[in-house]
């Protein structure tokens, strides 16, 4: 799934770097905060580990062998931010030393495999595993499913990056300049092998390694499993994750970003959103556009991206994606604002009333 | 690698395929290698490739003489220029140029071409093959193969152009990257990235990771060789195999964890306090200035020439 140079336009690669660079900066910051001197050797060894995990041949049920990426198991064992750095460095080695994956496309590969994959996989793992004990079957299944979903999320992102190329970049005669497959071809072509072979390899590796570590070396998992009991008999340590406004808005952004390509694929228009001249009046039993509709239609015309497009109507898909980015950012900011407000009000109320919830203090 | 091997300083026995790692079975009967052999071969290939690259980077030649910072920046500039090209002809000319540079840098040409074309551009060729047909890329049908509702279907001019663009662009881009990596020792390349403003912590992580890849590769190879030694006959048992892969990867996690703690303590004992110090001194010479001008002119010519030919 490593994208070589030449499949994506330089513009797409630049956009991927715009996403990847802040993620690297945050990841470094998050990892450095814990122990200042320990991060460099730890991350270096992890990056080497990540590189080698990509080399393992995994026998899969169809009788052949396949490679896994290992981003999700690294995220489970050491946290998703550490996985971001480790997998990115491993991808850099592959790009520079072996020509596997491009240099311009390195940002895009990092976004897919080193950022999206560990976070999606880790999120799914946390969601399914819940507070189940470390050695439980449920936790192992959660890891396997996390690996499976993670690699498929990465494959979907790769397919979307490929799929937007022919629409955006082509010669005057219509010959695509970069990856020639549109979204409707790239997505099935990428997802089919990843839903079967590559997904299976990733699930086997992620579930298998977690089972092994939980059984033989649970100390390795301590960093990310503080609030989880080791075995079924032990009581769970107190204190779990809380739903903070930042987490809720981030979750919203993640879900929306994953759903955005649907609008480009779906045929037809949305129900009840047509302009008056698009209405089939005869079918509705009307003779004219209703007066109220005619009067108030176009009441607000000061839009930034009218009809999810630019004013000149060029680059429909690019405009759609830009609209999606702006829309998601605005809604996420509103969720964050409202959440922060609610939290602050709740805290103040708790502060004035000392009897309320004394056990949380 | 053939003739290039004899000329190299890498010991001959290291570059030869070992019988123990050979995927072919006894008496010439080919069988699919097991996961153990595949992983071992992969590890051996990795070492071989890295040693060979480092050795070539040490030979005298045109690109080897240039400042690594300049080479890194030039790579990005040229990759972007090649990325923006709209004509196959321009890309073919660029590819010819990379061959010229490879010859001037005394890279074994056969090895260079093989390294570039094996896998990625050939793989791309297979991938873009269906895109030459009118069912994927609509357009002017130049070679009709069948008819669908009376309309001719087959290879389209647009599809063929697109496939040629992708393959030539991929080949040229890979050639440029290989030119840089084959003519620059890894440590010099890292120092150049540092000099270009990549944060020091990343350079340190990348540099140390490179060192520990080979150490941990030794651990993996030992585990797999031990497994191979214990295997009496080649009957598949996928369940056990998956268990072994998970256990060896898990054991690697454990080893890596211990290793990082030991390395950390060793670094602290030697006075590491969280801010690394590196020794590097690059000096741009007249040759580098000339090269910078040449690269810039080349990038402008590639892009400008392509625009002049017509969009």
A few lines on this structure:
With 361 residues, chain A is mainly alpha-helical. Chain A has helices at residues 10-34, 39-53, 71-78, 80-98, 106-129, 137-163, 165-168, 183-216, 245-259, 261-265, 281-284, 291-296, 316-352, and strands at 57-59, 65-67. In chain A, 62% of the residues lie in helices and 2% in strands.
State the helicity of chain B in percent bands.
55-70%
Q: Shape of chain A, please? A: globular
Strand content of chain B: under 5%
User: Count of DSSP E strands of chain A?
Assistant: 2
Largest sheet of chain B: 2 strands, antiparallel
- Which structural class is indicated by helix and strand composition of chain A? mainly alpha
- The total number of structural domains of chain A is 2
Mean pLDDT of chain A: 81
User: What Rg of chain A do the Cα atoms give?
Assistant: 24 Å
* Helix content percent band of chain A: 55-70%
- Order of strands in the sheet with most strands of chain B: 1-2
Outline type of chain B: globular
Radius of gyration of chain B: 24 Å
What's the tally of helices of chain A? 13
> Uncertain spans of chain A, ≥5 residues at pLDDT below 50?
354-361
What percent of residues of chain A are in strands?
under 5%
Structural class by secondary-structure content of chain B: mainly alpha
The low-pLDDT segments of chain B are: 1-6, 20-31
The separation of the N and C termini of chain A measures: 49 Å
H/E series of chain A: HHEEHHHHHHHHHHH
Subcellular location (chain A): Cell membrane
Transmembrane segments (chain A): 40-60, 72-97, 103-128, 140-160, 191-213, 250-271, 318-342
Organism (chain A): Planosporangium mesophilum
Membrane topology (chain A): Multi-pass membrane protein
């Amino acid at each position: 799934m490593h994208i070589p140079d030449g499949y994506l336009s330089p513009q797409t690669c630049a956009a991927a770097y715009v996403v990847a660079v802040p993620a690297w900066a945050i990841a470094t910051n998050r990892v450095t905060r814990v122990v200042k001197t320990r991060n460099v050797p730890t991350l270096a060894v992890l990056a080497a580990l990540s590189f080698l995990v990509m080399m393992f041949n995994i026998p899969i049920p169809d009788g052949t062998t396949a490679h896994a990426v290992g981003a999700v198991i690294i995220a489970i064992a050491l946290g998703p931010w550490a996985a971001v750095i480790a997998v990115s460095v491993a991808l850099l080695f592959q790009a520079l030393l072996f020509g596997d994956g491009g240099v311009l496309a390195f940002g895009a590969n990092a976004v897919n495999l080193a950022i999206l994959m560990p976070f999606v996989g880790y999120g799914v793992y946390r969601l399914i595993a819940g507070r189940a004990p470390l050695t439980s079957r449920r936790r192992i299944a959660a890891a396997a499913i996390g690996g499976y979903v993670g690699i498929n999320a990465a494959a979907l992102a790769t397919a979307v990056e490929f799929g937007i190329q022919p629409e955006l970049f082509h010669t005057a005669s219509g010959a695509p300049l970069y990856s020639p497959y549109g979204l409707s071809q790239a997505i099935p072509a990428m997802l089919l092998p990843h839903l079967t072979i590559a997904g299976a390899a990733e699930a086997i590796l992620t579930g298998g390694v977690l089972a092994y570590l939980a059984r033989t070396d649970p100390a390795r998992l301590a960093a990310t499993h503080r609030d989880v009991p080791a075995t079924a008999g032990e009581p769970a340590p107190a204190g779990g994750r809380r739903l903070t406004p930042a987490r809720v808005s981030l979750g919203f952004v993640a879900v929306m970003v994953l759903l955005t390509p649907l609008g480009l694929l779906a045929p037809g228009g949305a129900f009840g959103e047509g302009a008056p001249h698009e209405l089939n009046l005869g079918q509705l039993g009307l003779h004219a556009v209703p007066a109220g509709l005619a009067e108030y239609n176009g009441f607000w015309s000061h839009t930034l991206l009218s009809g999810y497009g630019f004013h000149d109507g060029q680059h429909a898909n690019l405009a759609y994606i830009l609209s999606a980015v702006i829309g998601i950012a605005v809604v996420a900011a509103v969720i964050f604002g409202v959440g922060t407000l609610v939290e602050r009000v709740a805290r103040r109320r708790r502060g004035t009333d000392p009897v309320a919830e004394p056990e949380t203090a | 690698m053939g003739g290039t091997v004899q000329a190299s300083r890498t010991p001959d026995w290291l570059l030869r395929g070992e019988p123990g790692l050979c995927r072919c079975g006894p008496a010439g009967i080919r069988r699919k290698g097991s996961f153990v052999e595949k992983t071992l071969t992969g590890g051996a290939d990795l070492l071989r490739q890295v040693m060979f690259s480092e050795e070539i980077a040490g030979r005298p030649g045109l690109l080897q003489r240039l400042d690594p910072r300049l080479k890194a920046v030039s790579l990005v500039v040229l990759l972007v220029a090649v990325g923006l090209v709209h004509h196959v002809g321009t890309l073919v000319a660029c590819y010819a140029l990379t061959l010229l540079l490879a010859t001037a840098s005394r890279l074994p040409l056969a090895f260079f071409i093989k390294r570039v074309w094996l896998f990625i551009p050939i793989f791309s060729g297979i991938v873009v093959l269906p895109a030459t047909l009118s069912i994927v890329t609509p357009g002017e049908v130049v070679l009709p193969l069948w008819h669908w509702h009376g309309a001719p279907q087959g290879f389209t001019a647009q599809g063929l152009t697109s496939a040629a663009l992708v393959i030539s662009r991929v080949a040229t881009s890979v050639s440029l990257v290989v030119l840089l990596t084959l003519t620059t020792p890894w440590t010099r390349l890292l120092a150049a990235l540092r000099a270009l403003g990549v944060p020091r912590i990343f350079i340190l992580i990348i540099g140390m990771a490179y060192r520990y890849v080979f150490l941990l590769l030794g651990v993996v190879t030992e585990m797999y060789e031990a497994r191979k030694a214990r295997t009496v006959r080649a009957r598949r048992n996928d369940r056990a195999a998956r268990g072994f892969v998970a256990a060896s990867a898990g054991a690697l996690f454990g080893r890596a964890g211990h290793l990082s703690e030991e390395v950390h303590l060793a670094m602290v004992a030697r006075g590491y306090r969280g801010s690394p110090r590196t020794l590097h001194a690059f000096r741009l010479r007249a040759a580098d200035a000339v090269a910078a001008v040449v690269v810039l002119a080349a990038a402008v010519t590639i892009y400008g020439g392509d625009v002049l030919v017509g969009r």
